[in-house]
Amino acid sequence: MIRVAVVGARGRMGSHVVEAVRSASDMELTESLDAGDDIKQISKDNTDVVVEFTVPAVSLGNVLALIEQGVDVVVGTTGWDDDKLEQVREALSHAPRADQAVFIAPNFAISAVLADYFAAKAAKYFESAEVIELHHPDKVDAPSGTALHTARAIAQARQEAGMPAMPDNTQSDGGSRGQVVDGVHVHAVRLRGLNAHEEVLLGNAGEQLSIRADSFDRISFMPGVLLAVRTLAGGGHAGLTVGLDAFLDL
């Protein structure tokens, strides 16, 4: 049995993770913590893998503390930038266990992971590319971590292919062109009734490719969460891994 602790257990995502772990035949829920609980309750004596689903303001501190406590961590909280990722790498270099692992997922939905992968594959064949992400208005970050990950993957693919900057003659748009991530425009929509959605638009003269992923319910993220837990528990992924695509046969 894989001993699993959940941090953020009473949140929108964390509560689903708790139920998914309880329903998994190969897992045991050992700790269920939320705001105000002492994270030091979690240790390598009672936990194999921690699933951390909180908010960006506290996630880094939680992950660094859990590394010190000698447990592997699966992180679903968004808001990770290069500086925060480097702090995790530095902490892992001094971790209690040489094989300790942290996994951070911009998105756990298989559809979103595949859309991200397909977009990166297609990017070098199109002159233009933009990313639109759509979420419920209770989401605290914008653009989403998934959209940032997608934009960076598109930009890297274009750079490796030696492509020039995308055409855009906009002079002054007052912010309507969205955030620019490594040269890729990313637009965020927050609308009641939505859950989690992303569309990548790629265009050439006379043609367009649309790649879209829609998650209508948070249960769509649970297979990815459990896959990450099982993968870390199985070993062989020491250090920091970002993106569920690393655990899929792509």
Automatic annotation (TrEMBL):
InterPro entries documented for this protein: DapB_C, DapB_N, DapB_N_CS, DHDPR_bac, NAD(P)-bd_dom_sf
Record has Protease as a keyword: no
Biological-process GO terms, alphabetical: diaminopimelate biosynthetic process; lysine biosynthetic process via diaminopimelate
Residues that bind (S)-2,3,4,5-tetrahydrodipicolinate: 136, 145-146
Gene Ontology molecular function, alphabetical: 4-hydroxy-tetrahydrodipicolinate reductase; NAD binding; NADP binding; oxidoreductase activity, acting on CH or CH2 groups, NAD or NADP as acceptor
Active site: 135 (proton donor/acceptor), 139 (proton donor)
Assigned EC number: 1.17.1.8
Any Pfam family matching the protein: DapB_N
Compartment(s) of residence: Cytoplasm
GO annotations of cellular component type: cytosol
Pathway: Amino-acid biosynthesis; L-lysine biosynthesis via DAP pathway; (S)-tetrahydrodipicolinate from L-aspartate: step 4/4
Catalytic activity: (S)-2,3,4,5-tetrahydrodipicolinate + NADP(+) + H2O = (2S,4S)-4-hydroxy-2,3,4,5-tetrahydrodipicolinate + NADPH + H(+); (S)-2,3,4,5-tetrahydrodipicolinate + NAD(+) + H2O = (2S,4S)-4-hydroxy-2,3,4,5-tetrahydrodipicolinate + NADH + H(+)
Record family assignment: Belongs to the DapB family.
HAMAP family on file: DapB (MF_00102)
The protein's role, per its UniProt record: Catalyzes the conversion of 4-hydroxy-tetrahydrodipicolinate (HTPA) to tetrahydrodipicolinate.
PANTHER family to which the protein is assigned, alphabetical: 4-HYDROXY-TETRAHYDRODIPICOLINATE REDUCTASE 1, CHLOROPLASTIC-RELATED, DIHYDRODIPICOLINATE REDUCTASE
Quaternary structure note: Homotetramer.
Protein name per Swiss-Prot or TrEMBL: 4-hydroxy-tetrahydrodipicolinate reductase
Organism, scientific name: Bifidobacterium tsurumiense
Lineage: Bacteria, Bacillati, Actinomycetota, Actinomycetes, Bifidobacteriales
Gene transcribed to yield this protein: dapB
